[in-house]
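Proteins fold. Shown next:

***
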Amino acid sequence: MLSHSQTATMEGKKKTTNGLLFLSLALALSLSATATLPSQLQTQTLTLHSLPHPPTLSWPEAEALAEPDPEDALSLNLHHIDALSSDKNPEQLFHLRLKRDAKRVESLLTLAALNSSHARRSGSGFSSSIISGLAQGSGEYFTRIGVGTPARYVYMVLDTGSDVVWLQCAPCRKCYSQTDPVFDPSKSRTYAGIPCGAPLCRRLDSPGCNKNKVCQYQVSYGDGSFTFGDFSTETLTFRRTRVTRVALGCGHDNEGLFIGAAGLLGLGRGRLSFPVQTGRRFNQKFSYCLVDRSASAKPSSVVFGDSAVSRTARFTPLLKNPKLDTFYYVELLGISVGGAPVRGLSASLFRLDAAGNGGVIIDSGTSVTRLTRPAYIALRDAFRVGASRLKRAPEFSLFDTCFDLSGLTEVKVPTVVLHFRGADVSLPATNYLIPVDSSGSFCFAFAGTMSGLSIIGNIQQQGFRVSYDLAGSRVGFAPRGCV
């Protein structure tokens, strides 16, 4: 019979032996996983380019004299806001963009947190060009639209995160600086103020009334910017396609981040947005394709009407937030990196609950995609593992995963796929690894947020034809959709 001390000694040896075996097995498995990772990892080639210089704004007024779009389609060219900031170098523009982006996200998160559509007072078709504008206001992309009769062409921000259409109007009690002359409603034959008791006035969340019994509007944004003035109807001209009696705000007091453009064309889901107002004519359908911001890029475009919906698009259903009707909510089920689903990133992290909290929205005015923090950390860590052979660089602004790719012309990077319900969207490498300076630093273009709301930004949307079919309550993505 063994003594108590002998038994304890043997058990100790057994534990030590088992521990060594477990450690050896774990090490072997770890080495095995590390050895097999490169052959299993799905990659794509990223061709490296430095930060683009401001694109040259070329918008001939002859475009306004072009042949009108057919009655069942309307198209416009779009440009990036950088085109209105040619006096700044690429690094300055990029820093300004990130500052605007932070304000934009703050505004959206504030509105979502309030969970109320009252939080911000805010078969045919046509198309137009889109200008992307980095330094010019609450959105990133601009188009040129004729206002009034005769039409006076001005730059307008396109914004899927807001509803009310508005522009600066004379007389201006307090207006920001814009590229074009301020619109004077007294010189338009088709301008008409909306009476205080009219149905259109009652569509505003918090309508006002002036001494002349004309309806007044106010749109306030979460970053402190606002516009205030008379609510009216006016004719808008897209090239030579006229859209009559569009309800819009004629702003006499406009303050905040809206430098450069004359106003905003709200493309949200609310009842005063442009797509909803013109639903009968354009069947509540529109799409855009956003090109990158390089000087050599062709203009982006926005299309309204049945022809806006691409036949090659993969669609995912739009979800409804019972407390907030402006945003385009979609169901994101997961994300894959290098061909494998990201562990710890479940659909529950992106769920829109019955109270209107959480969820995922698609937004044209936000640049960098924000994911609720647990989801972002899981995605970031998976990407770091897949990109472990790339030389790391210091953090940059909101980006905590950056790489030093100086001296290289191209690199292999892990693939990234967004899995929406019914639609897998495989991102080009340029849509998630972007230059942040002129020295070869590239960063993973996602960021985390402490909010439950996640936002799919326009960097990730670049190159896709994104189709919004409000009548069918769905949104689609067609790759290489800018041609």
